[in-house]
Amino acid sequence: MREIENHPDIELIPIDISNNIDNHFDNIIKLDIVSTNTDPRDISQSMSEVISYMGFIFEKNKIDLLLLLGDRHEVLAAAIASIPFCIPIAHLGGGEITEGAIDNVIRHCLTKLSHLHYPITSECAERIKNLG
Questions:
Q1: What is the mean pLDDT of residues 71-93?
Q2: How many structural domains compose the chain?
Q3: Is 12's pLDDT higher than 90?
Q4: Worst-scoring range by mean pLDDT, 41-45, 56-60, 78-82, 98-102?
């Protein structure tokens, strides 16, 4: 993110949807609507709020590429919100496997929604290829 921020031809608009971004960015947008509760109803509510809020962000800013990191439900919500705006998605960390969690479903959805893939390992890259 620092490299992107320092590039003269790129404007970085960091959006923190899961409280993981360093506060050292000037124009960071923080979403404080994300629940840490793992109850299915709370996750659904959180996703709907992220989708709605991201729609406002996409409407007010010209976004050329949505760069997503991870496989949390909030990240999937951001990806879903980008669909009607035709914003291409780059996903970092696809193709991984998490046993016994909904993360696999979310991660695979993100892979299918993404246009650019940046897997961590060659095994992850192979799983992404196998998803089509």
A1: 94
A2: 1
A3: no
A4: 98-102
Residue-wise DSSP of the chain: -HHHHH-TT-----EESSS-S-TT-TT-EE---------HHHHHHHHHHHHHHHHHHHHHS--S-EEEES--HHHHHHHHHHGGGT--EEEESTT---TTSTHHHHHHHHHHH-SEEE-SSHHHHHHHHHT-
pLDDT of residue 24: 73
- Tokens at 35, concatenated: 């629940």
Write the CATH number for 125. Answer: 3.40.50.2000
Measured distance CA(89)–CA(129) in Å, rounded? 17
The two structure tokens encoding residue 106: 């979310």
Domain, as residue range, for 91? 2-130
Extract the tokens encoding 11.
């404007």
